[in-house]
Amino acid sequence: MVFTSGCNFNCLYCHNQLLKNKTSAEITEKMIYDFFIKRRNTVDALTITGGEPSLYGEELLDFIHRFRNMFPDKQVKVDTNGSDTDFLKNLKETADFIAMDFKSTNYGLFSEISDEIIKKSLSILSDFKNHEVRITVYPYYIPENDFEKISEIISMSGIKNVSVQQYRPVDNIKPYSINILNNFKNILENKNLSVIIK
Known about the structure:
- With 198 residues, this protein is of the alpha/beta class.
- It has one domain (2-197): TIM Barrel.
- Helices cover 32% and strands 18% of the residues.
- The longest helix has 14 residues, at 57-70.
- The protein starts with a strand and ends with a strand.
């Protein structure tokens, strides 16, 4: 797993606060290649996460192409917040698995990205054979009375796989109980979505 620095969201519950701002790279491309060469028989995939990988656009896409040329038997997974629809479209040619966060019905709480861009990204994501929408159930961003609306947004986009993730406290907002998470799971499953709780 490699982490890119910099993010265009400012989520209150972020557990990678140090990656919110762009910093100089600590790991070179050669170091990644050397890692996979030494572990060719034990590591089968590269995950690129952040921060927000899409901020590196063409630079990152070119790296993925080079990586795949060097290691055609390895898979590539990319995590994204869905803020760049062009980046997602271009990943269709390079990535094996895409995971996208769905954070709220109101993205204005933590970003300048419109809700419509997120809906468009969800539709693009649904074209990937291997995809997952991850919902960190932070009560301030995901109130219970939004569960139905969220399930509608996701199901209408054509998404099939959803991960409901428990919010790990970083402030004084109490996480939902497992019963509430299961209720959310049931609402999503009623839209014919495949759902797991993490």
